[in-house]
Amino acid sequence: MNETTFPTMWIAFIPLLPLLGFLLVSLLRRKLSEKVLGLLGCAGPLLAFVVAIYLTVSLYRFPADSVTYVLYSWIQSGNLQLSLAFTLDPLSALLCLVITGVGSVIHIYSIGYMHGDKGFGRYFAYLNLFTSMMLVLVLGENLVVMFIGWEGVGLCSYLLIGFWYEDMEKSLAAQKAFVVNRVGDFAFLIGIFWAFFLFGTLSFEGIQQAIARLDTFYLWQLNAIAILFFIGATGKSAQIPLYLWLPDAMAGPTPVSALIHAATMVTAGVYMIGRLSALYSVATFASSVVAIVGALTALYAATMGITQRDIKKILAYSTISQLGYMFLAMGLGAYTLGIFHLTTHAFFKAALFLGAGAVIHAYVRPDRGYPAGLQDTYKMGGLWRQTPLIFFTFIAGGFSLAALPPFSGFFSKDPILATALQKAQTPFSVEGLAWFLGTLTAFCTVIYTFRLIALVFFGQPRGDVRVEPEHYHASYTMGFALVVLSLLSLFGGGLHHTLSSYLQPVWGSSHHTVEISHSVHEFNFFLIFGGSVIFAVVTFYIFAWRFAWIQKVVRDNPWWWWLYFLSYRKYFVDEVCELLIVKPLKRLSAALLKWIDFFLIEGIVNGLPKLFLGWGWAMRAAQNGRVHTYAGLILVGVLLGLLYLGYTIVYSPF
Amino acid sequence: MYEIMWLILGILSVISAILVVSRINPVYSALYLMLFFASVSGLFAFLGASFVAVTQLFIYIGAIIVLFLFVIMMLNFEELKKLQRPPLFSPLKGLILSLALFGLLCVPIYFGLPSAHPRHLPADFGSAKWIARDMYIQYPFAIELASVLIIAALAGAFVIARIGKKAKNS
Amino acid sequence: MSPNFLLYIGAALFSIGTFGVLSCRNTLILLMSIEIMLTGVSLSLVTFSWIWANSAGQIFVIFIMAVAAGEAAIGLAIIMAFYRLHKSVQTDKAELMKG
Predict the structure, then answer these.
(1) What is the mean pLDDT of residues A78-88?
(2) ipTM field
(3) CATH number of the domain at B2-86+99-138, out of 1.20.120.1760, 3.40.50.300, 3.20.20.140, 1.20.120.1200?
(4) What is the domain count for chain C?
């Protein structure tokens, strides 16, 4: 095979097909029935999935490591040579498969979940646009194309969080997500500018080559750029300090939470670090920052997840926590493990979210017959008999999240911690700290996972709304999606060795595989596995059968109570932010509104028409329709010309 | 001798021109215009341009002035006589502008032609033959254009003069 | 006396014609003023012709006469039409173009 035989043009079809779906659905959403719209909405991602499989197979058989398809040369300005180009290499191929694969399943699920919603067509249009933008992000050949996708998914996230925009709270959540992301995107943009300044190019390949040539003198700049990019990633991937928006983002429809806020968009930051592995492997300080922030976020979010009551909030904090794991792996230079955890996380977290959506859907208000919107786990309970399908798929996802073997989460999380332990020279090194925090997080993960399972599926039903099994059985599409994803989260771990050899060419020399010694491996495995099993059993026992007792204990003991309260109220970070950032900003905005908007901009905007009005008023005197005035004005012009003529004659050098 | 005639006829033409633009009754203006054309024709003659002088007399006095008088007679003579001259574009402004124009026109004459002295004139200078030879050899195309222009003006004058009649009838 | 004197006369005639165009209310006199301007230019051209012993100036004057004849014909036709429409030859009646 040579270059010409690779179907390069098809690369463009991967993001183009969902975009086409977006256009069709958004244009025809008022004309077509729900059934046709659903089919149309699923067609784009499914076809893209087929194309992605085809291209991945082609790439596997292709001698080169990566293939670039230049759509057209976009910006050419001096040094800046930008083309709208897509690169397919093992990393982006894997991500494409995950996005289109999991995306298609979630699209199919959405047909059932969004059934009867008046925004059905709009929903599918947004979802298709999101898929397209995410694929642009992943396939982008340079930082700017990536940034297009980066902003595009942010926009779709905003649109979908605020999908039910009539609800003020949800609209505000969407705004919050957008504004918080803006902070990160700003840093990302500065990073792009700086990268161009330093490297003179924005394509990933060019950056890689530039870094290889660069003198060590520029190391601090590399670190700065890497940290700026990472700040962008903290916004998109909900890490400290910009994680605040993700729990609120659960206001969107549940499949959206599964697709955007668990499986794909929030992992964009991880992907970005993987894509820029050449930069991060050189910028060791920035990598350490990434690892530590990831580990801290993982633990921090996990502790908050333990006490949440809302089923989707628990999963949201768990997502933040798992993203922290991914960043930990990326920061340690274990890029394959980070991407692998991204993949398995996409499987099991999507399964969990879709299961949660099915649970929410199963609770039907008897008098009305549509979902009651119950999300409070304290009001659920004993669901497993009524909805066995949801239960088993949820178990598959939950065990995977808790990293119990043989579920996929184990195969991706365990090596991360083992790598950290292996790399740790001293207990207080970055790796040691990361391992310690990661292990604690693993236990917290087990606790909140089993608390969730126990609260939802076991014990006595505590709420006032009842389950209508018929309602939930009615939707085949949802059941299909749940089964597919739970199977993936069950067997996804088997991909481990395939992936690490498949992805190896992407990292090139920047990836040093750490040989994990046998003793470290065993110690790590038995510590985490043993601890997990103990915590799992205890948590499950308490929350499934001693729920009233644990509530009483926490309420009576002031220490426990305060810990609980602190965690439940998310360490009051929202309130502190409100006080320290939002309020002053609002005041500043008010001042800006008054002085800049009303005074300056309105002055200019209203002043311009006034200026022209005055000019026209002055000029109207000339157009009085009288021959003499015209003649006089002509003469004035002639006189001016003559003045110039006289000037040139009088002062001519001849 | 020539110079004295230039002086007399020049001053005469200026005075008659001023009289033309300052009369209220257009009939007087037309008559002074005749005097003006005559004096300019005399100037042409004393500049040796005999053919142009004669043509000037024929065309301007013989044709244009007669045309003017003819039109004046066709229009309501009483109303024309009643006309006052409240300035539209006030005479002061017109005076200032035209004086400025004159001043500016004098600049190139003063500075551009510091010593205009007559060359040796050919024997047949200004004769019809002399002009015609140069004109028909060098500017045939312009002559054709001029003829087209005059025909167009003829047709145009005919059409335009009918406008008011049509409006009246309809 | 140099022929520059005649150039000054031509300039003066042109300016007088301009003054007439600018301040005459009567369209007939306005038209006459235009003739005065044209004649002023003709005088200058003939003077130049005399100064340089060149026929071009006089040929130009003949063309000016052709244009002036056409212009007078058209102008007078316009005045006739104008008079029929407005019952007047006053220039201030013509303000349809007023902005």
Answers:
(1) 87
(2) 0.90
(3) 1.20.120.1200
(4) 1
